[in-house]
Amino acid sequence: MGLDELGLIGAAIAVGLGAAVLPVFVNAEVYVVAIGATVNSRPFLALLILIHVIATTIGKAFVFQLARKGTNKIRMVEPRPPRSAFTAFMRRVGRRLARTRFFRWVKRVNDWLLTLLDRPYSGGLTAFMSSLTGIPPLALVTILAGASKQPQWLFLTMVFTGRLIQFLTIAFLLHQVSWF
Asked: What are the pLDDT digits (tens) for 65-92?
């Protein structure tokens, strides 16, 4: 294994941990698209995805534990008024989109999945769907699952499984591999 491969493995770990802890700044899906489009070896691509998913799951375990330990310190914050015309415009666009039939359906599914987090084992469905599709956002689900009665082993298993399916699908679709 050469330096190039070791560098890609290190990047897979770093991006996985970064995307789990700081999802606003590091995007795991963009990384998967990039390596799916650039790595030529299919077995090495699958290995990179597996390493990336393991790193992401470890990072989510860290965030889960932070939420579990810090639930008594959570407080609600009121949104501030927009500082710029662009922010005000984006909020208006968001409110208009929220009134469409599709977004109302997505909100209903999102709300239903979030209510499942209160149940210890049904909440695994929420973690799986969130890690597979991004609805509801996995960053939010991780914090809420940590603050709920969700068993950590179930949460991490569902996150690992959902992310592995999602990332392998993205990478191999870019690689144009028909494995279905």
From this structure: 998 887 555 555 666 776 777 777 777 8
